[in-house]
């Protein structure tokens, strides 16, 4: 059966204790070798998607740089359109297609983003309706999406069972801290039920890359 939504992969690097960043927002967990692997993965998808906080904290480029290849479309979930126009993703939107997704009734900063070459998608009333968004993206020819976090974004996708694959690097660090962001944030599940199948394990020196599928 052909799905009416794109194939969704969640990718992240976690510490041994399951954190994706320190309580000060530092998230450089992957080794250079792992970053090369991730950029290979980026090259293989049609779009990379992140949440607003990741843009704010990391100011990422979300491009393919460590390997040769075309950068995919970049998508930011930013319900209230609060991202800084000075962020790298927006500053480079004329070169690499970039989409900002806001709620339907939010348009205050649209012109500012559009002036930088960003495409705006409106989707959802209280929170971004991911099912609807994925359908819109599929219609735009996006068949494979890499969700690169952070924890809140991962939760929204997992909660609605919109994830086909999880690729997680266990990096050799302990981060700790009650307020340090975990791989999956949000309310969390009340039961241990959402199981995935372990498809592949890759060992890279002190890191372990785990590939899970639904
Ligand atoms: N180690 C890693 O692999 C990795 C990867 C990505 C981010 N990070 C780290 O994670 C931290 C950020 O994570 P986070 O959990 O705070 O935020 P996030 O990046 O997931 O952004 C969350 C925000 O995105 C928006 N959002 C996402 N889904 C939405 C939906 N369905 N509806 C409405 N709004 C939605 C909301 O504004 C929400 O507050 C940063 O410190 C970053 O460095 C680490
Ligand atoms: N797999 C992975 N390992 C990490 O150590 C890390 N920090 C991220 N984080 C994903 C998140 O989306 C970041 O913002 C980008 O990894 C930064 O992206 P750029 O290098 O600027 O393209 N992801």
UniProtKB/TrEMBL annotation:
<keyword id="KW-0521">NADP</keyword>
<feature type="domain" description="Bacterial bifunctional deaminase-reductase C-terminal">
    <location>
        <begin position="6"/>
        <end position="210"/>
    </location>
</feature>
<dbReference type="InterPro" id="IPR006401">
    <property type="entry name" value="Rib_reduct_arc"/>
</dbReference>
<dbReference type="Pfam" id="PF01872">
    <property type="entry name" value="RibD_C"/>
</dbReference>
<keyword id="KW-0560">Oxidoreductase</keyword>
<keyword id="KW-0686">Riboflavin biosynthesis</keyword>
<comment type="subunit">
    <text>Homodimer.</text>
</comment>
<dbReference type="GO" id="GO:0050661">
    <property type="term" value="F:NADP binding"/>
</dbReference>
<dbReference type="InterPro" id="IPR050765">
    <property type="entry name" value="Riboflavin_Biosynth_HTPR"/>
</dbReference>
<dbReference type="GO" id="GO:0009231">
    <property type="term" value="P:riboflavin biosynthetic process"/>
</dbReference>
<comment type="pathway">
    <text>Cofactor biosynthesis; riboflavin biosynthesis.</text>
</comment>
<protein>
    <recommendedName>
        <fullName>2,5-diamino-6-(ribosylamino)-4(3H)-pyrimidinone 5'-phosphate reductase</fullName>
        <ecNumber>1.1.1.302</ecNumber>
    </recommendedName>
</protein>
<dbReference type="InterPro" id="IPR002734">
    <property type="entry name" value="RibDG_C"/>
</dbReference>
<dbReference type="GO" id="GO:0008703">
    <property type="term" value="F:5-amino-6-(5-phosphoribosylamino)uracil reductase activity"/>
</dbReference>
<dbReference type="InterPro" id="IPR011549">
    <property type="entry name" value="RibD_C"/>
</dbReference>
<comment type="similarity">
    <text>Belongs to the HTP reductase family.</text>
</comment>
<dbReference type="InterPro" id="IPR024072">
    <property type="entry name" value="DHFR-like_dom_sf"/>
</dbReference>
């Amino acid at each position: 059966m052909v799905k009416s939504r794109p194939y969704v992969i969640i990718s992240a690097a976690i510490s041994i204790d399951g954190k994706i960043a320190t309580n000060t927002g530092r998230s450089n967990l992957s080794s250079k070798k792992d970053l090369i692997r991730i950029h290979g993965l980026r090259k293989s998808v049609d779009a990379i998607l992140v949440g607003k906080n990741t843009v704010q904290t990391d100011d990422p480029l979300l491009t393919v740089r460590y390997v040769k290849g075309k950068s995919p479309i970049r998508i930011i979930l930013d319900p209230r359109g609060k991202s800084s126009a000075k962020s790298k993703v927006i500053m480079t939107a004329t070169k690499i297609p970039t989409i900002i997704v806001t709620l339907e009734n939010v348009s205050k900063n649209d012109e500012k983003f559009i002036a930088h070459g960003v495409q705006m998608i409106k989707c959802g009333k209280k929170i971004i309706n991911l099912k609807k968004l994925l359908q819109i993206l599929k219609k735009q020819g996006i068949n494979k999406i890499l969700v690169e976090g952070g924890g809140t974004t991962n939760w929204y996708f997992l909660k609605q069972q919109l994830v086909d694959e999880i690729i997680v690097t266990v990096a050799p660090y302990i981060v700790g801290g009650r307020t340090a962001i975990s791989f999956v944030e949000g309310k969390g599940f009340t039961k241990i039920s959402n199981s995935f199948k372990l498809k592949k394990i890759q060992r890279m020196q002190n890191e372990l890359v785990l590939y899970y599928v639904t």
